[in-house]
């Protein structure tokens, strides 16, 4: 329901949004648009962690002559920025389909109070139908609506993701230990996720509004226009819609993600050592 808070109308605060979604759509309303992200999340996270780790190794190999050399802060920042830039290739279409499916539950009159003639005559019936509709009406470029906002969100966002994780892991790991414990990884990943999603909220609002735009009408001409219109209509507070939801969901989601990643790497290393 974070999308409803950021891009919808009339949902108010988090508590009111939860009640409205539940009252109008029951429990199923909280899971709208989730099938496509669930199917694609394994590929997306594989790409993200793969790009980050390989870029980090290339940087340390180039700078220190050893890919296993502990990375400096600037090395982590560069690897994170590269990861953020590449991640939008997969992330933008996934987020677009999710948001389109979530936002179409609003009626046109409730959402925008414009004549019904502008309403979409072809509601999406699922992720595959949604992709087909976008390709048919907007072409391939339509799948990348909001890509500019997503780049601005994810390039610094991944810096606030991988850098805090690395620092927290170092702080939580006792001296003499070669690797962090599962609890240290879980805690460091959760804190990093909360920080990353919390700081990314302002641009996440802009990205959500740009991607929701086009469901009923085209309201924004681009990132700057969306920022300008949103600010003039709702003030500075608009860029912090969904902040609590983003930070709270970021902790368990990213804690589990980093723990799974580190445990998988550990298992692969042990298997490689056992079967050289």
Helix content: over 70%
User: Can you count the beta strands?
Assistant: 0
Beta strand %: under 5%
Helical stretch tally: 10
The residue ranges in which pLDDT falls below 50 over 5 or more consecutive positions are 106-121
- Overall pLDDT level: 83
> Main sheet?
none
Amino-to-carboxy terminus distance: 48 Å
Q: Helix/strand/pairing class, anyone?
A: mainly alpha
Q: What is the CATH domain class?
A: Mainly Alpha
Task: Specify Rg, calculated over alpha carbons.
Answer: 21 Å
The CATH architecture name reads Alpha/alpha barrel
Q: Which series of helices and strands comes N to C?
A: HHHHHHHHHH
The CATH homologous superfamily is called Mitochondrial carrier domain
- Quickly count the domains: 1
Give the CA-based shape: globular
CATH fold name: Mitochondrial carrier fold
Membrane topology: Multi-pass membrane protein
Organism: Salvator merianae
Pfam families: Mito_carr
Family: Belongs to the mitochondrial carrier (TC 2.A.29) family.
Q: Describe it for me?
A:
This protein has about 280 residues and is mainly alpha-helical. It has a single domain, classed as Mitochondrial carrier fold (Alpha/alpha barrel). It is built from 10 helices and no strands. It has helices spanning about 1-5, 15-25, 35-65, 75-105, 110, 125-140, 145-170, 180-210, 225-235, 245-275. α3 (about 35-65) packs antiparallel against α4 (about 75-105). It is globular. GO terms for molecular function: transmembrane transporter activity. It is a multi-pass membrane protein. This is Solute carrier family 25 member 48. Keywords: Membrane, Mitochondrion, Mitochondrion inner membrane, Repeat, Transmembrane, Transmembrane helix, Transport. It is found in: Mitochondrion inner membrane.
């Amino acid at each position: 329901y974070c999308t409803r808070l950021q891009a919808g109308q009339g949902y108010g605060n988090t508590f009111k949004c939860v009640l409205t979604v539940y009252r109008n759509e029951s429990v199923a309303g909280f899971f709208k648009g989730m099938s496509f992200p669930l199917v694609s999340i394994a590929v997306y996270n594989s790409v993200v962690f793969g790009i980050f780790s390989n870029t980090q190794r290339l940087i340390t190999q180039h700078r220190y002559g050893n890919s296993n050399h502990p990375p400096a802060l600037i090395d982590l920042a560069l690897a994170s920025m590269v990861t953020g830039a590449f991640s939008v290739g997969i992330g933008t279409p996934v987020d677009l389909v999710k948001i389109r499916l979530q936002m179409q539950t609003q009626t046109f009159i409730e959402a925008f109070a414009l004549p019904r003639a502008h309403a979409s005559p072809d509601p999406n019936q699922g992720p595959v139908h949604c992709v087909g509709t976008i390709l048919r009406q907007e072409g391939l470029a339509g799948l990348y609506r909001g890509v500019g906002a997503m780049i601005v969100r994810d390039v610094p966002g991944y810096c606030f993701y991988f850098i805090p994780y690395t620092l927290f892991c170092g702080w939580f790991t006792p001296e003499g230990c070669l690797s962090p414990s599962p609890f240290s990884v879980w805690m460091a990943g959760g804190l990093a996720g909360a920080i990353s999603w919390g700081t990314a909220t302002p641009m996440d609002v802009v990205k959500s509004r740009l991607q929701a735009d086009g469901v009923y009408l085209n309201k924004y001409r681009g990132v700057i226009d969306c920022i300008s219109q949103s600010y003039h209509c709702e003030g500075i507070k608009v860029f912090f819609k969904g902040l609590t939801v983003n930070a709270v969901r970021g902790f368990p989601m990213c804690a589990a993600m980093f723990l799974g990643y580190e445990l998988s790497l550990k298992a692969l290393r042990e298997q490689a050592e056992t079967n050289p």
